[in-house]
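If you are new to this repository, start here. Below is one unmodified record pulled from the training split, so you can see the exact layout before writing a loader.
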Amino acid sequence: MLTLKDCFDFSDLNEDEICAIAECEHIPIISALEEGDNLVHSARGRQRIAKMLLQRAKECDLRGMDGHATQLRCIHKAFITRFGP
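And here is the target side for that same chain:
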């Protein structure tokens, strides 16, 4: 039987990125893992993930959630560093 950690390990995304996608899309983590892993394999999909992360960071800014917005921007920066703009 696979654990959630096993599924994270099989993905090209890291746990922070997957959890951020789950938050942005309002879906369970396992669904975000599947969606994110599908998106990360195309340039358009990677752009969608990057845009999703920044959009959620902006929403957090508007709600006064500065710490979480900063965390999302760090996740975005690391994502761009690994996969390009």
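Two things worth knowing about this chain: The two ends are 36 Å apart (CA to CA). DSSP finds five helices and no strands in the chain.
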